[in-house]
Amino acid sequence: MFWVKIQKASFDDEIPKLDQQIQQNNCGALVSFKGIVRGYDEQEPLSYLYLEHFPEVTEQEIKRILQGAQEYWTIHSAIVIHRIGKLNVGENIVLVMVSASHRKAAFEASQFIMDYLKTEAPFWKKEFFQDGTSRWVKAKETDIEQKKRWQVS
Amino acid sequence: MIKIYYFGFLKEILSIEEEQIEWSEGNSETLLTLLRSRSSFWAESLSEQNIFRIAINKKIIYQTTPIIPGDEVAILPPVTGG
Fold first, then answer.
1. Where are the alpha helices (DSSP H) in chain A?
2. Mind telling me which InterPro entries this protein's record contains (chain B) (predicted)?
């Protein structure tokens, strides 16, 4: 099971069902990662985020990332749910679930997927702060460095 | 004619979401050169460090690629996903 979903709605209610589905292939390891909107950027208190994407293209790019993970690790399933639109502090933003026979593959593949989501998937975040100001988030050098550890393009 | 779409902060600072321009022939590089020639502000906004990728007809390209009349081109600023 390899798929990508981009949606406005929260995905918390979907997790128990996905947890069951992704284990159907008798996996020995399941890693799930949930990203949450932080309450601040550096020292500045955040009010909410706005996320924009490029319909169809973003989905294609994430599928390409999942294919990349399949090329490097033996994994049974990998799914990604990514939210768009207005997201308040504390709300979930991204879910990555990976199942495999062994934990190393599940851990590493999920980290690979997150590192590539951060740097290759066409999403753009705008931060709205509690003081009424706003700004688009810039690509972070640290995220680009994280991706380089996989040494693939 | 070709259609151009802008995303993220580029859309905002250039105050444009989409536009149509006259086009006979060229490629992704010649398009960027043309857009940069509009003003120093456009040149700075569309500098190499502000462009992550170009997409042509909803396919991201990784090298200079021809653009023909009728194509839809998207200019993508650096991404901040996840």
1. 15-22, 57-72, 103-120, 141-148
2. Beta-grasp_dom_sf, Mopterin_synth/thiamin_S_b, ThiS/MoaD-like
- Give A-chain residues touching B59 at CB under 8 angstroms: 57, 60
Enclosing H/E stretch for B25: none
* Whether the predicted pLDDT of A24 surpasses 80: no
- Chain B (28-67) residues lying within 8 Å, Cβ to Cβ, of chain A: 52-53, 55, 58-60
Structure tokens at A26: 């008798």
B81/A122 Cβ within 8 A: yes
> From CA A23, how far away is CA B42, in angstroms rounded?
51
Low-confidence ranges of chain B (pLDDT < 70): none
Cβ contact B78:A138 at 8 Å: yes
In degrees, rounded to 5, the angle at the alpha carbon of residue A122 between the alpha carbons of residues A89 and A142 is 70
pTM over 0.90: yes
**Spatial distance between the Cα atoms of A57 and B74, rounded to a whole number of angstroms:** 10
> How far is the C-alpha of A115 from the C-alpha of A118, rounded, in Å?
5
